[in-house]
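FAQ: What does the model actually see?

It sees only this:
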Amino acid sequence: MYGGCHSLCVCVCDQIIFAIALLASGQNSTLTGTLAGQITMEGFVHLRLAPWKRRLLTRALAIVPAVIVAAAAGDSAVAQLLVLSQVILSLQLSFAVVPLVWFTSREDIMGPAFVNSKRMRYVSWAVTTIIIGLYACAIVLCCDCFLRASCDF
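And it is asked to produce this:
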């Protein structure tokens, strides 16, 4: 038995599958975020940048704070930083869902054919409220755990 696995081959295969899934998830997230940012900048903010400038700006905004925090925290806090980063990333869903529900509920933006029905608006806002509430609970629990410095991740 190796680390709880029945065979070393199974462990290695699981690790490879997890690494591929993580890479695919990251690529999907990056593509979705890039396209959403491009559409938002061009459509709502009316900011047009050359693709290389936009990529440089978004990558710098993402990587610079991460490098600073990782360097300041050191190797011993990497697991805690990973959990904290996931909690913070989960917050971003709220910032995407609220405008999505808001805009798709407005007939002046969507037009009469594509606007959410009254029932869909109620369901959408209820789900959005649940999502925000769950993330607020996660943040409180995570911050409490970090402040007490008693987390075992």
